[in-house]
Amino acid sequence: MDLENRNAALQEELSLSPAKRAATQIDWFPRAPAAHVLTGHRSPVTRVAFHPQYSIIASASEDATVKIWDWETGEFERTLKGHTKAIMDVEFDHKGHLLVTCSSDLFIKIWDSQNEHLVRTISGHAEWVRCVVPSDDGKWLASGSKDHTVRIWDAQTGESKLELRDHENDVEVVTFAPVAAYAAIRELTGTPNTDRAKRPGLYLASGARDKTIKLWDTQTGQMLRNLAGHDNWVRALAFHPSGKYLLSASDDKTIRIWELHTGRCVKTVDAHNHFVTTLAWGRQMTSAKVAPTEASSADPEKLMNVVATGSVDQTVKIWLP
Description:
mainly beta; 4-stranded antiparallel beta sheet; 26 strands
């Protein structure tokens, strides 16, 4: 019987598609060569974002467009036009219904991702808005700017709630920490683990032209930890699905992998022939029904093992196992 069970298990493993097998590899990291190279933008790619439900990525560019692609096949789907100047960032909300963008025209815009309708325009930064991202529950937006600040916004009203000041140059990227990373961040920063809150948006990471990565407490506005190591501007950040690592991309042409609970850089990947401007980890909603827990205040989500990077070399690369 044991032999039969093992044989059945092996058959099931062999029947899994590469994408499904990739999803089961907890500690997977991207490695060369890239599976797809997507071309079409006429200027540097500034950001890429995965749709949380479908095999779709959106790429933003200095050519003032957002392009939509299928990352599994590498096929181009459509171009979105909205901002009047270079689009610095693009991101889907946690359900994929809305798309948020920001630009050197100083505006943050929220779009209906299905019909491309403009839902809301937000302003407040004194200079170019270089990055914007929604919290996992969609209640908050975080943005970074050429004015050296990070701002927290109420996504429903557009009201500015908090301003974070500690970077010494343009803020290039902001990203909310997933709930899975809270324990490691508290261990890294020496924060007493008495706060058991699991709601999204409690911690934030930012990267800037001062070559540093900073971790923030979004409730108090306190800068918790500074991560230094890149040799050039920090352009992109992504938390590893396990919550144990933070990935960063830089104009030093590398991806660095940081162990969160120690703050150490544990791996460096040579990624592009030019500055690496953006990095994103694939997301896909779980199909199975999950019993609600304290940690599942937002819709349950799993992350596929696919990474996309974009570069000044005008390409988008898809990294698969």
